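Q: What structure does this chain adopt?
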Amino acid sequence: MPSPATRRDVLILGAGAAGSILLTRPSAATPEQMREAILELTNGAPIRPGKVHIDVPPLVENGNSVPITVSVDSPMTADAHVTLIALFNEKNPQPNVGTFRMGPRSGKARVATRIRLATSQQLTAIARLNDGSFWSDKVDVIVTIAACTEDS
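A:
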């Protein structure tokens, strides 16, 4: 029969477990994973630059809460409107930041939110129009204090 654990044994095991949790960082997405996520969205359709505009500070002091706005040049009528805006990043744990569905009754082809950025990286926004075409914009963001990353 094994001897009961001493308080010292429990403290050592607890400290080791806590240390392993603190030292374990979730893996970051790679640019290749971002490209795969974009390919999954577009089903291989060509993506043209233009019509999409990403508004985000080029230099971010703290990556925990980064304001970003994505807008698309579209009249948002029944005949010509945006059906989807998707935002991707290349170095956070998940390459797809968000997908926003819309239609002509949305009024404006514009979304604004706050995101977390694990480190300096490139962001890509893609818009799908009702004619099936895809348009994009890319921006580089420098993050001076990285955000805590977590798996979701």
